Amino acid sequence: MTVMTRTPLVTEARRGFAPWAGLTVLLTLGVVLAASADRWQGGWAETAAQLHNAVLITLPATAAAGCWQGGRERRRGTQELWGTAVRPPLSRFLVSALPVALWAAAGYVAATGLALLATWPYASGDGPRPALVPTDAFVSGAAVPAGHVVGRVVPSRLAAPLLAMAGYVGLGVTVAAHEGSGRYLNPAFSVLDTWVPVWWQPVAMAVWAGGLAGVAVLAYAARRRWTALLPLAAAAAAGTLLVQTGDGLWHTDPLGRRQVCDTSVAPAVCVNVRYAGALPHLVETLSGVTGKLKGVRNLPVRWEDRDGEPRADEASLPSLTPLGWSFVRGRLTDPEEFAWEAVGALELRGGCPDDPVGVTDDAVGDYLAPHPLQQSLDDQDAEGDAKRRAALAERRAARARLAAMGERERRTWLSAYFAARSACDPSGVPAL
Asked: CA-to-CA distance for 398 and 388, rounded, in angstroms?
């Protein structure tokens, strides 16, 4: 009869603190992501950026987990007993630290998978962006053996929470720094959803972080401590490459310059390709505006949604980003305000100065898409002084005149209005 025995590594991985460390990472990251779900659950790029930026939380947490595990034998009073074991110090160290590191990395990967599943029903136009996930999971796990060394060296139960706080503050300071080469060495370097790393950046960051963890482990537990020079050399090479490349580590996502359009209406409605699935919703939101503009000439060709200023024959679509404000999970939070802002973009065309034409612009905006709070604003003016009441009366008279026009007369008037606007000539705007 053969009796199968588990190796110490498997035993550590299946029992004790290691699974709890992985669960802690999963729950911590889950709470952080859930609290900010409106800002990422609707875009693949936003989800990837939020997951990466969460390393600011997970890395100190896993370092603290490693530190707590490192002090286990001291707390149990078995430190001297382990010192008499036949197994070499490095082997004993890895048996204790490696399961926690693997579970911590697994917790990060599990949280990433759940975040991607949460994004999937709402995101469209592009796809998941997993480029940084392996490195971020590896870095979160690599912090465990480094923290484990601290737990072995510092004889205090407060070492773990103090290490977590120090790690968070240290990483946060470099994240907040807008200058200085040290920020490029920060695994939690804050990125925007419009940034894409060069192909080798995740590899270099993994070598940098893993090399530093390797230095700490070998310098503490290896019999031949000079072997720590090998990971030190690798970390130095990777760190030098990261620092010298600097801002070149990231470039703007080319998808930010691409858009999809619905040309069945005039002006056409275009949206960034990352949010292509929201185009029918935006077209429906603006249908009240485009319906009233049917047959009107001199309009912009389209509402555009690209980085930078619109062209002379375009108007800017109200911004959908950053997510969590006007656009959440593929839907507009306030369609009426979106339509009002879109009309404002028609009135102030690309390249024209912000030179409104008083009551005329107000009448056009009120006819096409009134502000959601227009009635409340008018009521405030009605209760104001004589000057405000007179201005309100003038605006209301202009609105009434535009609304009272016949359809053909109104199309002709609006065509002349937008012709003057396209020429950036407020003086040419027809009076009401």
From this structure: 16
Residues 6+ apart with CB under 8 A from 5: none
Is the pLDDT at 280 greater than 50, yes or no? Answer: yes
What is the rounded distance in angstroms from the CA atom of residue 380 to the CA atom of residue 391? 12
Contact between 122 and 41 under an 8 Å Cβ cutoff? The reply is yes
Question: Which amino acid, 342?
Answer: A
Q: What are phi and psi of 268, to 5 degrees?
A: -65, 150
CA separation (Å) from 345 to 26, 50, 330, 342?
44, 31, 22, 5
Element (H, E) at 90: helix 89-119
Nearby residues of 322 by Cβ (< 8 Å), 6 or more positions away: 39, 46, 193
Amino acid in position 150: V
* Angle subtended at Cα 246 by Cα 206 and Cα 258, rounded to the nearest 5 degrees: 90
Task: Give the integer Cα–Cα distance in Å for 165 and 61.
Answer: 9
Average pLDDT, the chain: 88
- pLDDT digit string (tens) for 78-87? 555 555 555 6
Query: Cα–chain-centroid distance for residue 318?
Result: 19
3-class secondary structure, 268: strand
CA distance 142 to 145: 6
Average pLDDT over residues 266-293: 94
258/245 Cα distance (integer angstroms): 27
Residue 119 has pLDDT above 60, yes or no: yes
Per DSSP, the three-state class of 196 is strand
Instruction: Report pLDDT for 10.
Output: 77
| Residue 132: burial class (beta carbons within 10 Å; 0-12, 13-18, 19+) | buried
* Closest-CA residue to 247 (of 180, 199, 170, 194): 180
Read off the pLDDT band of 311 (50, 70, 90).
confident
146-165: b or e for each residue (b if 16 or more CB lie within 10 Å)? bbbbbbbebeeeebbeebbe
- The tens digit of pLDDT for each residue in 204-222 reads 999 999 999 999 999 998 8
The token duo for 346 is: 């028609």
Q: What percent of the chain has pLDDT over 90?
A: 62
Which has the closest alpha carbon to 351: 312, 313, 308, 300? 312
Strand, coil or helix: 259: strand
